[in-house]
Specification:
Belongs to the prokaryotic molybdopterin-containing oxidoreductase family. Keywords: 4Fe-4S, Iron, Iron-sulfur, Metal-binding, Molybdenum, Oxidoreductase. It comes from Lysobacter niastensis. This protein has 748 residues and is α/β, with parallel strands linked by helices. It has 4 domains: 11-78, no CATH class; 84-182 and 399-601, Rossmann fold (3-Layer(aba) Sandwich); 186-394, Dimethylsulfoxide Reductase, domain 2, CATH 3.40.228.10; 624-744, Beta Barrel (Barwin-like endoglucanases). 35% of the residues lie in helices and 18% in strands. A 6-stranded mixed β-sheet has the order 6-5-18-17-16-7, sandwiched between helices. It has a 6-stranded mixed β-sheet with strand order 29-31-30-33-25-32. The chain is globular. Bound molecules: iron/sulfur cluster. Iron/sulfur cluster (SF4) is lined by residues 51, 53-54, 56, 67-68, 70-71, 74, 225-227.
């Protein structure tokens, strides 16, 4: 990480020598060069651990180096030799820690023992595990209703911990199980479940080797799923058309030098990734998808046999896209008719196409409509249930998909609850619980007063930061299961506890020996993960053990053998096999090298929707309720030295940013139009019906982004996102489309 604060233009390909240099810096900065290097050799290996970074799947057979630069940062930060000890907490008040930035908090190292907040000293003090569990149990059992408690889950939680956690919460009596999915791919789940009968993507890694075209919407794989670049590189080299739609020019989508290619590394070579790169305006993707579908229908390039056999609603859909007006499509998409027809032509020429998307699609008011239009595009040409084709929502957190599969969902299906109740002999609650936005409102309205988080950084990851912080501070008790110090520990209830857990890279020793957990990646591969390093401290517990001991303390009359189950995680998996469909014979199947693929009905062109068919849905552009008079729209993004709200460093190499976080990317046209200059300091104000929200002191960075569009990093700009500003139906915060204005910083 550079000390200098500077902005330049990055002209090198993504990856390459700079990726190796940055990886070395990450290991050096965490003082784990040798330990880290040894640990990385086990990353994403059949007998190793699953990278605690993103959910991109592992190649099979595995290469020796099955990790990327950002995987190195994730592993180095977990395996770090730095420790946050009781002495650290004794030295620093919560008020002082609250004034430090997220990078500072992350850089302090691993938590070492359970801590309890002492209001008198405004500090965290050590507490024993039994006392901690008794405190939580006491608070939970003192509530008038279990629905006054909220149990949040971050996507790093393993399947075994997630299954036990949802079981505990439901035996306790509530479905208040919000999770980070609510803030990322909930829109994908809502859209695809209604349209195709499954909320997951249907493609596998092998499909990337067979696709003739890969369309990528609202995703920056170079930073958020870096190993995806290797698949795209190989696809590009074999002539597959890669078409990118992203308001920002992202280096990883333009050119990539594979650090694992001696030819590219020694020969200074690289591979062009996107054959076509379009920059729609923020929120323009529904118009883009509608235009592509219009061209396909008008050129009659549809798969009539597939449509007739497997779908419903085609005629009405076709009529609606034929009626779409080109002027409106150009205006709403920010692209020209020629560009849209060119892209549609590439789509039509391809006999097998994969559509990928990320948060740039899901975090918008009309994201469900956009995703259903993208899926309709696939249905028009039968691009599902055949090799090299299908929908591919690329998940963020390493097990976010697995957690949902294990029952972490505030709206569980009756069938799931029936199976769970039958297996564990209790009556699960049937009333749906709070999602993330609902949980915030409930804490703010004092309808909920106990907040328990299994991982994550709720106070930083959520929108409308000031409102969320107020809500969490109104709680009687806040509890965080974490590996590292973060903002949420400092935004606490009257009572607060930090429970430190084992990391993915660490040995999880239970009564029956070292234990492995399982995760499910973005392409429904379920596989084992076993740590190899000694725990960062002797006082850490595994996530499953934390849940089991909490359940035993809170539910003394429960018939579930909590402590026995965590003596050997095979026992948990045997119960999962009884409750979760697709996990039959779980323990044997998951021990196969690389694990097993969870069946996706769409791969057989089976669509378990209400009608038993895949659906075409009409989504006219006109009914865009999110339009506002705001002069600009801002999207929150990650830097290259960041994973979700975890800030590893202050550089964003591919965008030319060094040593800075409070930056705002803006077009040359808007600088001139607004009378502002590159490098000038501004305040950003979001405009919403309930008022204005402002963040101050952002440096303008002239960048290749469409006029009217801005981009800045989260969590710093999450404060601008009104709680009510979310996706229709899915309630995913609309963090990629915030109506704002700029003003010169008073501080400047
Ligand atoms: S692509 Fe994702 S899962 Fe793979 S090594 Fe990189 S960060 Fe980890």
């Amino acid at each position: 990480m550079s000390d200098k604060k500077s902005i330049d233009v990055y002209l090198k390909p993504a990856g390459g020598w700079d990726a190796l240099k940055s990886s070395w810096h990450a290991l050096r900065d965490q003082q784990v060069v040798l330990k880290g290097a040894g640990t990385l050799l086990r990353a994403n290996q059949p007998s190793g651990f699953d990278c605690p970074g993103c959910a991109w799947p592992d190649r099979n057979p595995h290469s020796t180096f099955e990790f990327c630069e950002n995987g190195v940062k994730a592993v180095a930060n977990e395996a770090t030799s730095k420790r946050v000890t009781r002495e650290f907490f004794a030295e620093h008040s919560v008020q002082w820690l609250s004034q430090q930035d997220d990078h500072f908090l992350e850089a302090q190292g691993r938590l070492t023992e359970p801590m309890a907040y002492d209001a008198a000293g405004d500090r965290y003090r050590p507490i024993g595990w039994d006392e901690a569990f008794a405190t939580i149990a006491g608070s939970l059992n003192a509530l008038a209703s279990p629905d006054e408690a909220i149990f949040y889950t971050s996507g790093r939680t393993s399947n075994e911990a997630a299954f036990l956690y949802q079981l505990f919460v439901r035996e306790y009596g509530t479905n208040n199980l919000p999770d980070c999915s609510n803030m990322c791919h909930e829109a994908s789940g809502v859209a695809l479940t209604e349209q195709l009968g499954s909320g997951k993507g249907s493609v596998t890694l092998e499909d990337f080797e067979l696709a003739e075209a890969i369309f990528i919407f609202g995703q920056n794989p170079g930073t958020n799923h870096p190993r995806m670049l290797a698949e795209l590189r190989d696809a590009s080299r074999r002539g597959c058309r890669i078409v990118a739609f992203n308001p920002l020019r992202e280096r990883g989508l333009e050119r990539f030098a594979n650090p694992q290619s001696p030819a590219e590394m020694l020969g200074g070579g690289s591979t062009k990734i996107a054959s076509e790169y379009y920059q729609p305006r923020i929120g323009g993707d529904l118009a883009v998808a509608t235009a592509l579908a219009k061209v396909v229908v008008e050129r009659d390039a549809v798969d009539r046999e597939f449509i007739a056999t497997h779908t419903l609603g085609f005629e009405e859909f076709a009529a609606s896209v034929r009626a779409a007006d080109w002027d409106e499509l150009e205006r709403e998409s920010g692209l020209s008719r020629a560009q849209l027809e060119e892209a549609a032509g590439i789509y039509i020429d391809s006999r097998a196409t994969i559509l990928c998307w990320g948060m740039g699609i899901t975090q918008h008011p009309r994201s469900v409509a956009t995703i259903q239009m993208l899926a309709a595009l696939l249905l028009l040409r039968g691009n599902i249930g055949k090799p090299g084709a299908g929908p591919c929502p690329v998940r963020g957190h390493s097990n976010v998909q697995g957690d949902r599969t294990m029952g972490i969902y505030e709206q569980p299906s009756p069938a799931f609850l029936d199976r769970l109740g039958a297996e564990f002999d209790f009556q699960p609650p049937r009333e749906h619980g709070y999602d993330t936005i609902g949980a915030i409102e409930a804490m703010h309205d004092r309808r909920a007063s106990v907040f328990f988080a299994m991982g994550g950084n709720f106070a930083a990851a959520t929108p409308d930061s000031a409102h969320v912080h107020e809500a969490m501070r109104r709680c009687e008790l806040t509890v965080h299961v974490s590996t590292k110090l973060n903002r949420s520990h400092l935004v606490h209830g009257r009572q607060a506890l930090i429970l430190p857990c084992l990391g993915r890279t660490e040995i999880d020793l239970q009564a029956n020996g070292p234990q492995a957990v399982t995760v499910e990646d973005s392409m429904s591969m379920v596989h084992l993960s076993s740590g190899m390093n000694p725990p960062a401290s002797d006082y850490l517990l595994s996530e499953p053990a934390i849940v089991a001991r909490l359940a035993a303390a809170t539910l003394p009359r429960s018939r579930t053998p909590w402590l026995w189950l965590v003596e050997d995680y095979d026992r948990i998996r045997e119960r999962i096999a009884q409750v979760i469909s697709g996990f039959e014979d779980f323990n044997r199947r998951v021990r196969a090298p690389g694990g097993f693929h969870l069946h996706h009905p769409g791969r057989e062109r089976v669509f378990p929707t209400a009608s038993g068919k895949a659906g075409f849905f009409v989504h006219p552009l006109s009914s865009d309720s999110s339009k506002s008079e705001a002069p600009l729209r801002l999207m929150t993004v990650r830097s290259h030295d960041q994973y979700n709200t975890t800030v590893y460093g202050l550089d964003d190499r591919y965008r030319g940013v060094h040593g800075l976080r409070r930056v705002c990317f803006i077009s040359t046209h808007d600088l001139q139009r607004l009378g502002l200059r590159d490098g000038e300091m501004v305040d950003i104000t979001s405009l919403w019906r309930d008022g204005e929200r402002t963040v101050t002191g952002f440096r303008l960075v002239e960048y290749d982004i469409p006029s009217g569009c801005l981009a800045s990093y989260f969590p710093e700009t999450n404060a601008l996102v009104p709680l009510e500003h979310h996706a229709e139906r899915a309630r995913t915060p609309a963090s990629k489309s915030i109506p704002v204005r700029l003003s010169r910083s008073a501080a400047a």
